[in-house]
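Weekly sync, protein design subgroup
Attendees: M.S., D.O., the rotation student, P.L. (late)

Item 1: inverse folding check
M.S. brought a backbone from last month's batch and wanted to see whether the design step gives back something sensible before we order anything. D.O. pointed out we never logged the input encoding, so this time it goes straight into the notes. Structure tokens as presented (249 positions):
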């Protein structure tokens, strides 16, 4: 049985002082929650701080991206092995902001996904269409293309060791959430596409929804049969709000 997972994506926010207070507040708030795994994905410089504060708390942590290469002359790059040194469990790959603002291609995302697996960590693979793509009726094709790039490289077995997040680009940071039915429809499509290749992987794949999830809409979204939790941006920066979303799961 796939359980529920709620992962925070802090994006490029925080500092030593604000992180300390956010992380410390989360520990007692999340402790009583059973049956849902909770995680925070933080900027690289704060992985050590996060590990120091969260170790032993039951809350997992992770990074928001990695370089596709293992080591070498890649100035500014951070490898999956490096983030593994800080006790990370998860690494987000293919977030739409990486794809749109930093030029991550489907191929680069596939290589990053493989690098995360190779380091023994769990990739959170993000897929999702833009508003223009949705209006043009090609949302499913876009998501299929993004998934196929990864399965072509790592096999369907690779997805069996991963988490996926459906994040419609038009819902990220906009306050516009996909309705539970809209989200469920795409989640069912994604799971169905995996099932065509491997039923067991499809059944076990944790499939998160992301895009303006708040305490107020989380419960309805997470009640859908193919939505196994959320990837939370803005609301993960407020301890009470993030905890309420975890409780909803
Ligand atoms: P949001 O971001 O919750 O702020 O919309 C979600 C994400 O980008 O992962």
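Designed sequence read out in the meeting:
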């Amino acid at each position: 049985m796939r359980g529920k997972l709620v992962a925070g994506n802090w994006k490029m926010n925080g500092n030593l002082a604000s992180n300390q207070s956010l992380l410390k507040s989360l520990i007692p708030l999340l402790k009583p929650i059973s049956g849902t795994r909770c995680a925070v994905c933080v900027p690289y410089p704060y992985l050590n701080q996060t590990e120091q504060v969260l170790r032993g708390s039951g809350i997992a942590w992770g990074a928001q991206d990695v370089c596709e290469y293992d080591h070498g002359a890649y100035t500014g790059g951070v490898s999956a092995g490096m983030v593994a040194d800080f006790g990370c469990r998860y690494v987000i790959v293919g977030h739409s902001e990486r794809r749109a603002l930093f030029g991550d291609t489907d191929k680069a995302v596939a290589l990053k996904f493989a690098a995360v697996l190779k380091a023994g960590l769990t990739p959170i693979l993000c897929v999702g269409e833009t508003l223009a793509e949705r209006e043009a009726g090609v949302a499913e094709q876009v998501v299929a293309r993004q998934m196929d790039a990864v399965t072509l490289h790592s096999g369907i077995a690779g997805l069996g060791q991963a988490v996926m997040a459906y994040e419609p680009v038009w819902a990220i940071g906009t306050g516009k959430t996909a309705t539970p039915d809209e989200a469920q429809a795409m989640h069912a499509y994604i799971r169905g596409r995996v099932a065509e290749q491997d039923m067991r992987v499809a059944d076990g794949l944790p499939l998160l929804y992301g895009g303006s999830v708040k305490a107020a809409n989380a419960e309805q979204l997470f009640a859908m049969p193919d939505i196994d939790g959320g990837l939370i941006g803005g609301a993960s920066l407020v301890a009470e709000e993030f905890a309420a979303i975890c409780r909803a799961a």
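Discussion: The domain at 4-248 is CATH 3.20.20.70 (TIM Barrel). The mean pLDDT is 97.
Action: P.L. to compare against the previous round before Friday.
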